[in-house]
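From: lab user (bench 3)
To: helpdesk
Subject: output format question, protein + S-adenosylmethionine

Hello, I'm new to running complex predictions and I'm not sure whether the block I got back is the full result or only part of it. Here's what I submitted:
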Amino acid sequence: MSALERPSRQGLLDRFGRQHTYLRVSVTDRCNYRCVYCMPEEGLDWMPRAELLTYEEIARIVGIFAQMGVRRVRLTGGEPTVRRDIGALVRAVAAVPGIVDVAMTTNGHTLAKQASMLAARGLDRVNVSLDSLDAARFAKLTRGGRLDLVLAGIDAARAAGLTPVKINMVVMKGENDDEVVAMARHFLPHAEDTILRYIEYMPFEARWHASTTAAEMRTRLAEIGPVEPVQDTLGGGPARYWRVGALRVGFIAPLTEHFCASCNRLRLLADGHLRTCLAHEDTPSLRDLVRSGATDASLAETIRAIVRGKPAGHEAETDGGRLFEGVMTGIGG
Ligand code: SAM
Ligand code: SF4
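Helpdesk reply: Thanks, we reran it on our side. This is the complete output you should expect:
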């Protein structure tokens, strides 16, 4: 085993003893949808392409993280599938020694076409965002999204073995919270290879909506049957898992059920900045260091220093708490 393949004994520890084994990589801030909770209707001032990390740069940086104990990578965005030849990046990341799990979070718009290619390149799993089962409402919430394509994409992901497919529903009061139960009923027949996750809407700058709490969602789900907590065997992520009938349902509740104390994740933004916390921008940009000729050793040292400075947690609370800095599409959710 080369020095590269050998995981660091020390790992990536922060001041609070949290070990970091999971890296989310936002590959672009661009998107073919404009979800109401994520982006303004007119889109954003996209990062100039030259500012985005190249696939070679991403693979190199992932390699350095892997040496320090990162084992799982998630590609996200913006919408990762709109970046040209995303399959090439999947292949490059899957080939990094030490990385055992490569996943992607996608809106599913092109998944029907791409799922088998992505699986062949080494993708293990997908998370697909789905906020409504009503085509008109889906189009409204995503500002132009196509429910039929996304549902076909979910089927294609299952067929390609990108399982368990996790469905992410951002729940907003008065907008789609009346579909919490319908969503679970829809996926109950697919409980074997599908997990449904409800996400508390997070207040981001100007895109203000009202949140529904995870506890309220569970109360609604009780209409189907008992909602029982299950042991989390899914890898220390932010979701807490429950079961309704045979279906596993997760709740990502950054506002009412903080998971900061056990947070094992780091975020690499499309422009090379590292975010140790969703609500906290770190400097310097790893891209700038890479482009100025930094060695792997000095990059590793910078990463360690940034991780040591990770804050204990964020302070956002339901409607009225501190807003997160930046926009979700650059951070990657
Ligand atoms: N475009 C891909 C997608 O939609 O799945 C990946 C990027 S998206 C920013 C990642 C996740 O963040 C999605 O599941 C999305 O629903 C979630 N998200 C975006 N804005 C959010 C907000 N304000 N509150 C909660 N979740 C949000
Ligand atoms: Fe695009 Fe995903 Fe944001 Fe929706 S949530 S606008 S699909 S990046």
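A quick orientation on your result: Residues 31, 33-35, 38-39, 77-79, 107, 129, 328-329 surround iron/sulfur cluster (ligand 2) (CB under 6 Å). Let us know if anything else is unclear.
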